[in-house]
Design a protein that fits this description.
Shape: globular
Strand order of the largest sheet: 12-11-8-6-7-14-15-23
Number of helices: 20
Bound molecules: 5'-O-[(S)-ethoxy(hydroxy)phosphoryl]adenosine
Length: about 650
């Protein structure tokens, strides 16, 4: 019962554009395959070569890989510092190169060179030390997407202090839980941030979160908006009072390879958030190497990843990977639709962005606004596009390819997880042909497989469970304070010493991997296991549909019945007629097997703040149950009420 029937077959394939290919780091499938085979056969050798060339070490390691199955340790005996790798080592060669181009939502732009960024990081690190923060402590960071966020992160890294960045959209309760679990001593925040033209009062939320007992002794507050806030004497300190007078010299703390670099909370599909722990050397190596090859990095690039630093994508591909590679990084504080839906395209034009890395949910919203927005801007600086976070439906992929990349830019669909630290499966853009909705091939040193529950490998095009067969340097080492949970959730689910991703996938006859979504999101309809993502993709390919979420609801006869929640495009009319049309459309696209039992038209879908649909909540709603479990990651609680209201109307 672990096979997943994959029913949506996409056959379009796009070879790397010739002009791109001729200048790429890796120029052919043969070159990719030779390197991948080498890394698979000799992982110690491969990773040792890469670690020596990519990172700057204070002390060389003795043992490349110490391995107890998936409990691996890398570069044992070595010492280094992450902020040195991101900053100091660039100073002699490119100290005056721009490291950050930061655009605030109101429109102001600040540029910081590597030298300036280094100076600020040293000052903040000294400020932290003056507050008694030292190696082994945890500092919590709850900040807007401004340079000071990057500075705070790197200041922690400089001291061997673990940072725990909490996305600034989270509630007081979510912030409190995370700080308590992490036992954070210091919280770095701002008075507020700009979002859709309004001020979000961050400090107020922080104050609420700290009421009652807390491990947090001090709060360091950066002034972003200037709006009046309360400061608690003895606990709260202004950044502008403490930081400017600090010395610009701060000796970095050299740490062991396996020293934890940070903690990042990710919501499990059920239960309490997990503090994922990443290490210094392995994580840095993974992010820097993947960033260089998958984004085909060149020294003159101006690279933009829209992810918030509150998520792993922001950690790995806004901060650590790019800065380790000495890249010029664009950072944007605000919303994609402020003051209008042209904002992203305007940023690309204004800063000459070369690589644009974003999420399918953002692409779908931008696509919905029509082609006139991107058409107003000069996007000719772009040479590569990327997506991450969920499977991208072919329609959105093609729009991105045509309207944004003008068919000239390869799209790297990057599959990975908070737990994997770095990208695991993605096309190398000069070597691998892309297919809409397909993450394609594993990165060097990554050995995925598709298996059944017993761990047996499945054949081509057989949908099953995605596992990773060999440890890799950037993988999580544990869940903070709960090593058993780490072993239970990732290492022991499937027999045979493999890492279980929790995702379903299939491999096609070209060896390309197609991600089918979370295994929890698989339906069992009359003995067939169907991927909800494929049914969603079929729904979204209908011209009236904006977004769709598909879940199962209990059905006595078939086990589960297909229940769809659909949001419509502006001019579409919900009603019986469209309902019938959509059911027929799904059957046409996929087959009678996937005929929806029920379609509900709703105003909005419940999403996490990183844009993932929370199907768990929809499953409860579809089955008419109370919502259970954690809702702290939900973007907007009100969406649940409107969906409930919509279904109550249907029932009448
Ligand atoms: C999903 C984000 C399909 C997947 C980096 C994974 C994807 C989860 C893709 C991790 C992709 C991420 N195609 N699905 N390109 N990228 N996912 O921890 O289900 O926020 O397990 O990390 O997102 O989400 P997380």
């Amino acid at each position: 019962m672990t096979h997943i029937t994959s029913i949506l077959q996409e056959i379009r394939s796009f070879p790397p554009p010739t002009a791109f290919q001729s200048q790429a780091h890796i120029k052919s499938v043969e070159e990719y395959e030779a390197l991948w085979e080498h890394a698979k056969a000799h992982p110690d050798l491969f990773w040792a070569e890469q670690a020596a060339s990519v990172l700057t070490w204070d002390r060389p390691w003795q043992e490349t890989l110490l391995n107890k199955g998936m409990e691996s340790q890398w570069f044992v005996g070595g010492q280094l510092n992450a902020s040195v790798n991101c900053l100091d080592r660039h100073l002699d060669t490119q100290g005056d190169k721009v490291a950050l181009i930061a655009e605030g939502e109101p429109g102001e732009v600040r540029e910081l060179t590597y030298r300036q960024l280094h100076r600020e990081v040293c000052k903040v690190a000294n400020a932290l030390q003056s507050l008694g923060i030292q190696k082994g402590d945890v500092v919590s960071i709850y900040m807007p997407m401004v340079p000071e966020l990057v500075i705070a992160v790197l200041a922690c890294a400089r001291l061997g202090v673990m940072h725990s960045v909490v996305f600034a959209g989270f509630s007081a309760e979510a912030l409190r839980n995370r700080n308590e679990d992490a036992k954070a001593k210091l919280l770095i925040t701002a008075d507020g941030l700009y979002r859709r033209g309004a001020i979000v009062p961050l400090k107020e939320t922080v104050d609420q979160s700290l009421r009652g007992v807390s491990s947090v002794k001090n709060v360091l507050v950066y002034r972003r908006t200037g709006a009046p806030i309360a400061m608690e004497p003895g606990r709260d300190l202004w950044w502008h009072d403490l930081v400017p007078s600090q010395s610009e010299v701060c000796v970095p703390v050299s740490v062991e390879s396996e020293h934890p670099l940070f903690l990042l909370y990710t919501s499990g599909s059920t239960g309490k958030p997990k503090g994922i722990v990443h290490t210094t050397a392995g994580y840095l190596l993974g992010t820097a190497l993947t960033h260089r090859y998958i984004f085909d990095l060149k020294p003159t690039d101006r690279y933009w990843c829209t992810a918030d630093v509150g998520w792993i994508t922001g950690h790995s591909y806004v901060i650590y990977g790019p800065l380790c590679n000495g890249t010029t990084v664009v950072l944007y504080e605000g919303a994609p639709n402020f003051p209008d839906w042209g904002r992203f395209w305007k940023i690309i034009e204004k800063h000459g962005v070369t690589q644009f890395y974003t999420a399918p949910t953002a692409i779908r919203s931008l696509m919905q606004q029509g082609d006139a927005w991107p058409a107003q801007y000069d996007l000719s600086s772009l040479r590569l596009l990327g997506t991450v976070g969920e499977p991208i439906n072919p329609k959105a992929w093609l729009w991105f390819h045509e309207k944004i990349g003008k068919t000239r830019c390869p799209i790297v669909d990057t599959w990975w997880q908070t737990e994997t630290g770095a990208i695991m499966i993605a096309p190398l853009p000069g070597a691998i042909s892309t297919k809409p909705g397909c993450a394609t091939r594993p990165f060097f040193g990554i050995v995925p497989d598709i298996v059944d529950r017993q761990g047996h490998s499945l054949g081509d095009n057989e949908g099953g469970l995605l596992v990773i067969r060999q440890p890799w340097p950037s993988m999580l080492r544990t869940i903070h304070g709960d090593h058993e949970r780490f072993l239970d959730q990732y290492c022991k689910v499937i027999p045979g010493e493999v890492y279980f991703t929790g995702d379903g996938a299939r491999r096609d006859s070209d060896g390309d991997y197609w991600i089918l979504g979370r295994v929890d999101d698989v339906l069992n309809v009359a003995g067939h296991r169907l991927s909800t993502m494929e049914i969603e993709s079929a729904l979204v390919s209908h011209p009236s549909v904006a977004e769709a979420a598909v879940v199962g609801k209990p059905d006595e006869v078939r086990g589960e019945a297909i229940c769809c929640f659909v949001t419509l495009k502006g001019d579409a009319i919900p009603g019986e007629e469209l309902l019938k049309e959509l059911k027929i459309h799904v059957v046409d696209q996929i087959g009678a097997l996937a005929r929806p039992e029920e379609i509900r038209f709703v105003q909005a879908l419940p999403k996490t703040r990183s844009g993932k649909i929370m199907r768990r909540l929809l499953r409860d709603l579809a089955a008419g149950r109370q919502i259970t479990g954690d809702v702290s990651t939900l973007e907007d609680l009100a969406t649940l009420d409107t969906i409930r209201a919509a279904s109550a109307e249907d029932d009448m």
